[in-house]
Write a structure and sequence with these properties.
This protein has 237 residues and is α/β, with parallel strands linked by helices. The protein has helices at residues 20-37, 39-44, 47-60, 68-82, 90-101, 110-120, 148-151, 158-168, 182-191, 220-230; strands at residues 7-10, 123-127, 144-147, 175-179, 195-199, 215-217. This is HAD family hydrolase.
Length: 237
Amino acid sequence: MTLCIRAVTLDLDDTVWPFAPIGARIEQRLHAWLLEHSPATAQMFPIQAMRVLRERMHAEHPHLVHDLSELRRMTLRHALVESGADPALTDPAFEVFYEIRNQVECYPDSLDALARIAARVPLAALSNGNADVVRCGLGDHFRFQLGAREHGAAKPEPSIFLAACERLGCAPETVLHVGDHIHMDVVGAMEAGLRGGWLNRDAATWPAELPRPDLEFTTLTALADWLDAHTPEPAAA
């Protein structure tokens, strides 16, 4: 199969870094902050109860699936109000969350691979999450970041993929989107007309009923290797 790839869009959570450790730190640090600043809220909503509340907010507000930051604010505000605390604590509590959200620990292969990919083709971050690549210290690798909140729709909606292609100035069939999620990343990208690359770090099995991805990698290093072998040497600046 011959692919003409002129740019890459890249998912972030569980692609560039694992999310689970971040999520665990968020829960612990937020609970500790609430214990100090709003003990009644921490008592009414310990970690598991806060998790249930957050899931309830997601279920009750499906129109905000693209805006995880607003859903997080709503969860915090609801917990504060229900526990009789000052809702003005919502913003400082959110800042605690957001600081930890952007303290990412990349997979061992990511940093070197990001530098290699960005040196070979234009690279954009395309995420449903609310991490900020600049605040994470990775902004230099990306031409831009397009988030679901900014765009107004989340992957796998075709419009977010096509908006990224437009900003890159590339036809969709020349853009490779790479991510870990079978439906939101790979199938969504291919249905929008992009090339789909599956980052399969866990040796999962691709569902037989779905069309195969255009490419499959086990690490971002493998993606960088493929681009080195299959795209032209970039012109000198």
